[in-house]
Amino acid sequence: MLELRNANVFYDKAQALHDISLQVDTSNVLALVGRNGAGKSTILKAFMGQVALQEGSRQLNGADITTTSIDACSRMGIAFVPEDRQIFPGLTAHENLLVAGMSHQPGLWTMERVYALFPRLQERSSALGTSLSGGEQQMLAIGRALITNPSYLLLDEPTEGLAPVVVDQIVEAITTISQQGMAVILVEQNFRIPQRLAQHFALIDSGRIVWSGLRAGITDELENMLSGLHG
Ligand SMILES: Nc1ncnc2c1ncn2[C@@H]1O[C@H](COP(=O)(O)OP(=O)(O)OP(=O)(O)O)[C@@H](O)[C@H]1O
Ligand SMILES: [Mg+2]
After folding, report:
1. Any idea which of 52-66, 98-112, 147-161, 202-216 has the lowest mean pLDDT?
2. Distance of alpha carbon 84 from alpha carbon 2, whole angstroms
3. How many CB atoms lie within 10 A of CB 225?
4. CA atoms 103, 9, 227, 194: torsion sign
5. Taking CB atoms and a 6 Å cutoff, what residues make up the pocket around ligand 1?
6. pLDDT the model gives residue 125
7. Ligand 1 atom at shortest distance from the alpha carbon of 38
8. Taking the chain, what is the end-to-end CA distance rounded to the nearest angstrom?
9. What percentage of residues in the chain have a pLDDT greater than 70?
10. Which-ligand-closest: CA of 203?
11. What is the mean pLDDT of the chain?
12. Among all ligands shown, which has an atom nearest to the Cα of 35?
């Protein structure tokens, strides 16, 4: 289980996260939803160790990892797919996967399995990072994380700006990934996409959890509240 307990995060003097407590476990998808600037990406960065916790703690299977480095977290099985995807533009899709796999233990997720999950990526395996479409880049970014064989996969707005047919492919892939045992934290702007695959939800606003619960607890009122927050 990966957990934040009462986490407070600041950027200089501005407090970005207030008392955030969240946890995710094997085969579970936790969705974080909220408007622009709510603090969703900062929560993922707090899980990954990319931002320091001013107060509170981070725990992995009961062990305190509050001050553990990003590299060590990565070796311990936490993988982060950032919103900007960070594909190596001068490498082919295949090379991007090879590089990611090199520094990690082999496991369930091999090159073949990544290509089976995203057949489009195999068709485009010799294309340079720069020539991949947005959807292909997202598949590659997820594939690159999978090939490190993590236990926890953090996805920052993986469907943003993608065509509906590609969104469907990404949703299906995340469902498969979690069914095979991985814990996933999925950030999206609204409930619509996470409702298709997540079990647990947290609505974030102004760096706080303003609601959390199960899918059945998502009411029209809550959705209206979120669209109200979008202005
Ligand atoms: N590196 C930074 N330095 C200073 N302030 C930051 C930094 N990154 C984020 N912030 C601020 O922290 C708050 C939360 O930002 P964050 O990126 O976590 O929100 P978000 O919910 O991911 O938004 P979006 O939907 O736009 O991605 C915002 O007020 C943002 O301006
Ligand atoms: Mg963000």
Report:
1. 98-112
2. 24
3. 14
4. positive
5. 11, 16, 34, 36-42, 189
6. 97
7. 21
8. 35
9. 99
10. 1
11. 95
12. 1
Any idea what DSSP says for residue 215? Answer: G
Could you identify the atom of ligand 1 that is nearest to the CA of residue 204? Answer: 21
State mean pLDDT over 191-196.
94
Find all residues with CB under 8 Å of 185, minimum gap 6, and list them. Answer: 22, 24, 29, 30, 31, 32, 44, 47, 152, 153, 154, 155
Neighbours of 103 (CB within 10 A): 10
HSE value, Cβ hemisphere, 13 Å, CA-based, for 197: 26
Phi, psi for residue 19 in degrees, rounded to 5: 55, 50
Quickly tell me which residue has 């996933």 as its tokens: 184
Query: How remote is the CA of residue 36 from the centroid of ligand 1, in Å?
Result: 8
| Residue 102 phi, psi dihedral angles, 5° rounding | -60, -40
Do residues 42 and 211 touch, judged by C-beta distance below 8 A? no
Q: What angle do CA 134, 136, 137 make, to 5 degrees?
A: 65
Q: Mean pLDDT throughout 118-125?
A: 97
Fold of 1-76+185-231: Rossmann fold (3.40.50)
State the DSSP string of 97-165: HHHHHHTS---S--HHHHHHH-HHHHHTTTSBGGGS-HHHHHHHHHHHHHTT--SEEEEESTTTT--HH
